Amino acid sequence: MNAVPPPSALTYRFIRSGGPGGQNVNKVASAVQLFCDLKEWPDLPDRIRDRLRRLAGRRLTDDDVIVIAAQRFRTQEHNKRDALERLQTMVDEASIEPKVRRATRPTRASKERRLEGKQQRSQVKRGRGKVTRFE
Length: 135
Known about the structure:
3 strands; three-stranded antiparallel β-sheet; alpha+beta; Double Stranded RNA Binding Domain
């Protein structure tokens, strides 16, 4: 599923970016904080919404808003695009249905192979013992 959030669910805030950048870094707000309000996204299926909440982890606020900060690039446009791509990646990952693990029992042949391997390893280790002198 390639779910795209509606524009009403997205809010941007531009802030000053930290790190190196010379005098320009103190004047230009190039870092982006992207806020995606999950309550404003009614088309999102509940199962994907739940997985998205788990994936967001500490980026999810108590008000059900995902906050993504992007400051990798020096321009607002690049950082805005980066934040949107990261949100889309998160949504794509959440839309993948996890496989249900079914418990299985080992076969008799696999048990025997495991025991044979253990015996061979035991023989190798036993061969490393102290050597006694024969005369």
